Amino acid sequence: MNAETRNCQNCKKPFTIEPDDFAFYEKIKVPPPTFCPQCRQTRRLLFRNFKTLYKRPSDRSGKSIVSMYSPNSPYKIYERDEWWSDDWDPLGFGQDFDFNRPFFEQFQELMKKVPRIALTNIKSENCEYSNFTYGSKNCYLVFGCVEDEECAYGHIVWKSKDSVDNLYVYESELCYECVDVLGSYRLIYSQECEDCSDGIGLFDCRGCQNCIGCVGLRQKSHHIFNQPVSKEEHERFLMEHPLSDPKTVPFILEKQRELRRQLPQRFFFGSQNSNVSGNHIYNSKNVHYSFDIKQGEDAKYVFTGKELKDVRDGSFLGTNSELGYQILTCGGKNIFFSHFCVDSHDIYYSDNCYGSGDLFGCSGLRSKNYCILNKQYTKEDYLALKERVIEHMRKTGEWGDFFPVSLSPFAYNEAIAQEYSPLSKEQALSQGLGWAENVPATSGQETKTFKELPQDPQLFTEELLKEVLKCDKCGHNYRLIPQEITFYKRMSLSLPSECFNCRHARRMSLRNPRSLWPGKCARCGAEFETSYSPEGQGEYKIYCEACYQAEMI
Fold first, then answer.
1. What is the CA 97 to chain-centroid distance, rounded?
2. Cα(221)–Cα(227) distance, rounded to whole angstroms?
3. Quick check: 305 and 291 in contact, CB under 8 A?
4. Is the model's pTM score more than 0.70?
5. Contact 108, 98 (CB under 8 A)
6. What single-letter DSSP state applies at residue 34?
7. DSSP 8-state assignment for residue 208
8. Which pLDDT belongs to residue 319?
């Protein structure tokens, strides 16, 4: 079968379905998608709320809890331990399938009846203000937090410790304001770095120590703006430009950006790959148009995932995902059109199910098998009814697409879709998307200005916890927590002048988009696909990997 170009039913832009795509769709017996890859991703991300948190009562006990669901949500919300308790049975909400009605209409009814967990914190301790955490301890406002300890203010921080204000950081310690950093220690305001320590303002450095404002260095120590210096010169620079001075970091980063404009930039970040395209892909093969992938094989249109094989259209996948399509935060084998179904297999159109198999249109099940709309069947009856439901969905035009946006529990500005595909309120409403007016925020309650705060880290005390501050950017109020005051003092850092949301938005803006554009190597003219937009390609000299390796390493 030849490649076909079609127009997206959502954004109306053309997209291409390749022969290998058709083969995959035929293998799992679904029709080709009618949305382009970007709109398919955005549609999935509408079903995940990472960091918009509310205070609300539990619908089980009535006690005040922190939840990703607003008090006005039409869903039943239970506190974590209440949800996991054995004193209620999700099968008690089971219903017969009605072949006179669309599937999604029936599934929405079920979703509104079955209790939902307030925050997704699994095997975690003292992480009440974090969401989507696993195996973590003492973390605050870290979202997508896996096996972390003593971390605060982060997004996709895995296996890290004592780190604050980070984005896509792995196996690191004492890192601050870092983006896409791996295996590093005491790294500050750095991006795209691996195995670095005691660095400030680095970009695309590997195995470097005691470097400041450097770009593209490998296995170097005591460099400032890519120039070698003595240990004494390095110490003198830090004495003259202390990190506690709010002017120091902007000065270093501006010098670093000047270097980036002068030096070649690699078109793609990743290593140990074979036949891949996208960005931030590691130890993978045959992975295309995908981003933030570790150990992937035969995958396409996957955005953030680890240890996955034969997956199309997935977002924020757990480990060991195999043969999946149109899935969000799933882990297991043969999972299709589902959200947060983990340690499971053979799942269709289900939501928030754990350790289960052979489910269709189920919500909130744990360790169950052969269920449709939360009703238990024998294996034989389940398999027969499943085929009838699929045929019914083919006739109604529902089969083969992810849940419609009308089923999302979140407004656009609550969901993580806003992080990766920002829209204004007017844009969202014009596309028929919801918009929350009551997103938690306060203003006008500040007790001190940022200029009135102490500048010397040694003067940082718990007295600062009493103060309400005003964000220099958005004007909303924010407060400091004991953990970060201790961290700033230990690292000799200045206090932040912006709230967490603005700091996070700034870090997000540093990453290239999750899109690909055609490009040419500025050295040899070789063609490639890159996440650098045409504007980015005009600002920087983008090199293919061979030319980058030849000139920079």
1. 35
2. 10
3. no
4. yes
5. no
6. S
7. -
8. 77
